[in-house]
Amino acid sequence: xxxxxxxxxxxxxxxxxxxxxxxxxxxxxxxxxxxxxxxxxxxxxxxxxxxxxxxxxxxxxxxxxxxxxxxxxxxxxxxxxxxxxxxxxxxxxxxxxxxxxxxxxxxxxxxxxxxxxxxxxxxxxxxxxxxxxxxxxxxxxxxxxxxxxxxxxxxxxxxxxxxxxxxxxxxxxxxxxxxxxxxxxxxxxxxxxxxxxxxxxxxxxxxxxxxxxxxxxxxxxxxxxxxxxxxxxxxxxxxxxxxxxxxxxxxxxxxxxxxxxxxxxxxxxxxxxxxxxxxxxxxxxxxxxxxxxxxxxxxxxxxxxxxxxxxxxxxxxxxxxxxxxxxxxxxxxxxxxxxxxxxxxxxxxxxxxxxxxxxxxxxxxxxxxxxxxxxxxxxxxxxxxxxxxxxxxxxxxxxxxxxxxxxxxxxxxxxxxxxxxxxxxxxxxxxxxxxxxxxxxxxxxxxxxxxxxxxxxxxxxxxxxxxxxxxxxxxxxxxxxxxxxxxxxxxxxxxxxxxxxxxxxxxxxxxxxxxxxxxxxxxxxxxxxxxxxxxxxxxxxxxxxxxxxxxxxxxxxxxxxxxxxxxxxxxxxxxxxxxxxxxxxxxxxxxxxxxxxxxxxxxxxxxxxxxxxxxxxxxxxxxxxxxxxxxxxxxxxxxxxxxxxxxxxxxxxxxxxxxxxxxxxxxxxx
Amino acid sequence: xxxxxxxxxxxxxxxxxxxxxxxxxxxxxxxxxxxxxxxxxxxxxxxxxxxxxxxxxxxxxxxxxxxxxxxxxxxxxxxxxxxxxxxxxxxxxxxxxxxxxxxxxxxxxxxxxxxxxxxxxxxxxxxxxxxxxxxxxxxxxxxxxxxxxxxxxxxxxxxxxxxxxxxxxxxxxxxxxxxxxxxxxxxxxxxxxxxxxxxxxxxxxxxx
Amino acid sequence: xxxxxxxxxxxxxxxxxxxxxxxxxxxxxxxxxxxxxxxxxxxxxxxxxxxxxxxxxxxxxxxxxxxxxxxxxxxxxxxxxxxxxxxxxxxxxxxxxxxxxxxxxxxxx
Lengths: 670, 208, 109
Ligand code: HEM
Ligand SMILES: [Cu+2]
Description:
The structure holds three protein chains of three kinds. Chain A is an all-alpha fold. Chain A has 19 helices and four strands.
């Protein structure tokens, strides 16, 4: 990565003409001047600042959340009454496929990546991630992959095989549009983003912790993110293999899934779920991390059994590799496999249960303060537990054979994904909003947001348990009155409730956007430095943090470092008696006063975004014209050369002369 | 690909007062990243090898592995790739001795051996194709070409990287620690060789 | 701490303070070549070897594999953490794909 000393870091006495205004190509290595602007669109497009990238991840993920949400509403409209006419069977298939794909790959994962990017370096006291340019590459790759995937809507139709895209149903014969091609290629592209992101964040956590921060002093969110990145690191290549096979099958007539040639459909299922089960923990563990940050803050107690939470997280990550075939109980695996995977699946509920107990124990006897982030965190405990319990019911194979492919499964995974992951992410949004944007989100609006969401989600997904146990198959595009059943179990009634619920839920989510607007209106107050009386390192700096995060690299002596700087323990022995000895303002002011004189920040770069751009070009090439692949590859190669030869130090004359005024003052602390 | 840039060796960094250049573990970011990438690649090639294993017996009567293999030829090309690992490690050695000339020479030899291997693979593929074994002929052929093709692409990418590296060393345009950059490329190259060690035995030598 | 770099431990990979001498590497390469030759020879005599053939070949393959990993890739001399990253991937691959093939009755046919 590039490491530079920004000219603006020198004290203000340096005369402005120390650096020439215009870059001379000869000294800036190659043709271009580095895009060192700190404001305007260029400062976003070429940035490699983890905070800006984090925000961009978040914004894009939210946009995809809206898209996926609209798709969900269309599905629920179609099923609200008998003989739905909103969607054709074909459109319905595309809708549920893209809904799931969008929500999983383009909303929940990138939203977690947003927090990971923004918070992990701050939580470990670093100035950026280990490979800032790769970080930028990851974001753009994700964005372009997501856009590529969604262009299928206007290019003949989207994928329609369900998010697990079982073979041979995904073959050209059964899915003749290019939808599945877009799907396979798009997910390969976003997979590259996840993989590079994973490597980057793991190296960051392993290697860039502040002095004194041993692994057992790493904040719990960062820990959970690290587990997730390991899961990604090893799960992404598995789905990549599957996607490649699928691509070859469809684009180059390979035979991997041609049953008539003797292919085994279980090949796809195994590859998909070897990836797929780790994936569900990739989805939910970041939210667990957020909840484990939020609960202690609003219970005024340290996290109960921190080492246990860490180890159970790691255990979930590990055992998660041995249970994939529970998604295949009904596929004729054979009795031994079914028995083994059934038991393994029951076992994984144990570390999950450990976490829930730890959370409850954290709250136990605490001074609970039900702010919006806290409400969401408690929401996770309640709603996720419901989903975990239905999960245990289908770990029992004979019971699962009744449930599989019914709405009962749909209920299960929505309780764990919406009730676990999404509520957790919202908790994080409310909790860290003041840190990221310097403004509090409105608490009253937040409560509307929360309660509408909770009521909506239970109305939507709760009835699905009933629907499933009544035998309504998932992915059924239409139901008829005369087979809807009687009385309490009339599926018409429950379908209607679910559809109404989905609009309540949508209203709830809408409240969030309204809240952003309300909270950022002119005249709203700037957020206090430490609005929640927080505990971890990311709060020992301004809100939003400066470009270099910390004026002085913090030295860490405790797990809850910030808390321990604010409070002194005057109790004796096991009895703790904390007294406030410093305010956040004082602590940050002290850090500022003792700031480092030399701060190295990586220089922005053109190459990450260019390299990312090459990927969708190649992908369009696979679908439409083989020569496009060559064009894309050429761009990729060019960008890699540019990247590889980019100097670590952007020459001073790539910068405009330090302008007198704000910019300089902010940075001149030495 | 690994981000190979490192800090300037000169300037104020040398007497930096806040220990900026010490990672928490004292290990190189780049090498750690490379090893993680290789760990991840295990699952990529593992998946392809398993697919091949599952399907190697599914073909028409006279176009299966045991009929088409040319073991002496493949042994020779395996030997070539194996030796490229030796030249690669010699390049790394030279780089650590700051001996640019020999580094370049060994890197070039490595790339040439790699190219020889790829040429062998192209020859092998065309021969099989003439014998009637196309990519779409059978489950066996699809999975065989995919697995070895993937490996071949890895070698080709390696060759491009090696030749580029030679050029960059020649023009003194390697950002950062040159020896480590060479070492990183070496890790990648050896890994590709290791994968071939597996493929050679599992795919070619053990009869289906 | 800032974005880090890698030239801080000249002490660990300076010169030949770890790893083998060039001659050592040549010896390993010769050994690898010989093992490969043995493998190929074995493949021509599998009828005589019977049940011993498969394990023998797999063992030789493993030896070659680890020779490259441990010596050429310096894992024997480098930090254990590097090895850990690689071995996790390796064992997950062997484990998951092994179970997958097992459940597909690959080993029993
Ligand atoms: C207590 C822990 C859990 C257990 C025991 C469990 C068990 C299961 C089982 C056995 C299935 C397969 C049911 C079938 O298709 O017949 C399943 C499906 C599913 N689970 Fe879980 N699960 C647990 C937690 C989670 C979590 C945390 C998530 C995600 C955040 C999740 C997401 C899913 C999804 C998405 C599916 C459906 C996949 C599909 O068919 O499309 N599960 N679960
Ligand atoms: Cu699962």
